[in-house]
Amino acid sequence: MKTVAVVSQKGGVGKTTLALNASLALARRGWRTLVVDADPQGAISLSLKKELKVALGLTEYAEGHKTLRDVLLPTRIPELAFLPVGGIKDHRPSKVEIAESVLAKLVDQASEQFDLMMIDTASGLRGRTHRVLRIADYAVVPMQAEPLSVRTLQGVLETIAEVHDQTGLELAGIVLTMVQSRDDISLETVQEVWNLLPAEFVLEGFVPRDPAFLRASAHGVPVSLLSRRRPPAVAAVFDSIAAELEPRIGLQTEDDDDLVHLLD
Ligand SMILES: Nc1ncnc2c1ncn2[C@@H]1O[C@H](COP(=O)(O)OP(=O)(O)OP(=O)(O)O)[C@@H](O)[C@H]1O
Ligand SMILES: [Mg+2]
What is the pTM of this model? Predict the structure, then answer.
């Protein structure tokens, strides 16, 4: 199993949106995927279904009262499961700390049933998010396409390099988010990031700014599930991001270059 942490210094840059939608796309490509909500604010739990606020999850697993089996939630997509953050009592996030050893045990146990564990984290790179980075194989860094974000990038890359030296964590890539294709400043930021960083640091695929994301959060679904038959165009970007991420996070099988002939 590959473990991927979605992290950023800044809040509200699209971590949860990316973690959720990319996981769904990867699950649809056949990878048995577990999405873990490690953000005490429980953003994925909230965006998936309002009632999940009260669900058990990572916190109860960490307290030792529940097994992984007790806290995993299956989804409509057979390859995709979800581990809520849990521990939310009286609408307040829990203060329970999740030790690195608990996260390591989670990786160990989840690896029996999953190919991929995608962990959504709280913004910032300290505390729990730092511990998540220490048990992850890869970090994915969403970056909002605006000039200020470029300045926070160095800190993230330094932290990843530090953890790399201790645990071998690798940067899978930076994903530009909320790109406004009709806005000069947004496009200049994209150019700047592409010029500034080597190609292996930044994915070609990016997430455009789109009102569908707000609708999706309001209904508690990933964008591609907004409509059963005709999802919004923006949902397709996660298919290309998933395809690009696969080799970057070590998800490949030998039969991947199996050519299919259209006619037998
Ligand atoms: N590409 C986009 N276009 C438009 N709105 C977006 C886009 N991506 C995310 N949003 C919206 O912006 C808000 C923040 O996104 P999201 O929750 O994914 O960020 P985050 O980095 O996880 O935030 P936090 O740091 O609070 O956990 C949400 O309301 C989401 O619906
Ligand atoms: Mg979030």
Answer: 0.94
